[in-house]
User: What shape does this take?
Amino acid sequence: MALEFHISPGSSTPIYRQIIDQVRKGVVTGSWSEGDQLPSVRALAEQLVINPNTVAHAYAELVRNGVAESKPGKGLFVTKRRQIFSKEERLRRLNEALDQFLGETVFLDFSLDEIQAMLERKRSKIRTISAGKKGGAND
Amino acid sequence: MALEFHISPGSSTPIYRQIIDQVRKGVVTGSWSEGDQLPSVRALAEQLVINPNTVAHAYAELVRNGVAESKPGKGLFVTKRRQIFSKEERLRRLNEALDQFLGETVFLDFSLDEIQAMLERKRSKIRTISAGKKGGAND
Amino acid sequence: MALEFHISPGSSTPIYRQIIDQVRKGVVTGSWSEGDQLPSVRALAEQLVINPNTVAHAYAELVRNGVAESKPGKGLFVTKRRQIFSKEERLRRLNEALDQFLGETVFLDFSLDEIQAMLERKRSKIRTISAGKKGGAND
Amino acid sequence: MALEFHISPGSSTPIYRQIIDQVRKGVVTGSWSEGDQLPSVRALAEQLVINPNTVAHAYAELVRNGVAESKPGKGLFVTKRRQIFSKEERLRRLNEALDQFLGETVFLDFSLDEIQAMLERKRSKIRTISAGKKGGAND
DNA sequence: GTGGTCTAGACCACG
DNA sequence: GTGGTCTAGACCACC
Assistant: This one.
């Protein structure tokens, strides 16, 4: 299972919060399963090009909240999860997110092509990161 | 031009923002044209069963953003469409909206193709009318 | 950076607008720089002896206009200066402001030279710092 | 002297303001001279097909500003301009108008030259109108 | 503690 | 009747 992360460093929501939210969501949706190992603090920090402290901060809270647990000397692992989203639920959420996205951007006068190009570019970055390459994860 | 307003009071997006988005969408798609009068603050508040101040809040932002214009004592009217934001700002906003969208959907495990197909379908429903003088986005 | 706020409650310009203008002026003149924290909503409201909502109203518009940014739970901070408006929009606003100014002063019988001299004197006091990347106005 | 009024009921500037501005402009440009009588409230309201209250409102402000004066039982007459405000009062008003103007435009990133050029252009239009009269009241 | 949103109700300016 | 502003007080999310 590819562990995909996407953060926006420029956002007003703290980076560590973005990490937490994505891990939580990944667990809830079944993208990540019980027992899956999270990337190491240093690895993830390197991938996202952020401070390891930020990752550590996020991981600490995940442990505090019981989403993950630390096996000393081995790493961080996802704890028993509660529920997974059905196909319908996932579609509903995608639909909702798209509606919100369009609502915020229609008046910006971008063409569908421009938007799709930008979306593709961003997605390709995510793929690059989750493919495990170490060199090319630049922004 | 009577146009239906719909709000979801339980949504995470504030009510006043939902109103704004609907008006902007209506303007972009041509449901509302220059000179059309928006429903009065009190009327819309009554219709949506919300506080008039919430509607006023939304209307004030529409005026600030150049979407509508107030004729004192008469009401709010849709203005001639124009793009008030610089190219840079528009790109920044698109970028931000895309980041948020991705943050909320990466964990849903949809492929780029699936998302783009859905995006295309939604866009085709709202035939976008550009604000640019020559049919293109201006700055 | 402590910066004094002054409002005239009796003025025709709304209080929240006076706050906005003072912050913007402070940013333009360099009294406030990127990253500086604005006084809290409640603190400023107490200082000016006005309702916190009025301050919140002003702050919300500063955020919408990209002058400040909210860090959840921490406060409001001045953002990196940028020009969000298109050249067209900025000209439109300048034109509007000039019309209003002339409407209020033509009957005062000042010569163009007198007015320009006074304008120059005032401008020189607030050494304007451009938001443009290359020192000029951008769009 | 034909006292012609033109108002645009559809404009976003209030009708009473349009009336005030036209009288002021008329006085400044010499279209109206000291001692000229303004149309009665009821006559003007009838002519413009607007509410008499609106005209009364405008006239009241003209009197407050010293542009016109009421001779009870006779009507409203254009005052002698020069004796309206003291030098100090005129300076105070100019100062205030300039402050408001700068507050609204500093963040637009226009240079002093650009502003002064635009100001000059606008003023020259006024001069063109008032030319041919007994010269030199302004500029 | 911070800001963000919403409700309730008031007063003003304008027509 | 219209919108614009302000006050008062409430609840929320986030830190």
Summary: Chain C has five helices and two strands. The mean pLDDT of chain C is 86.
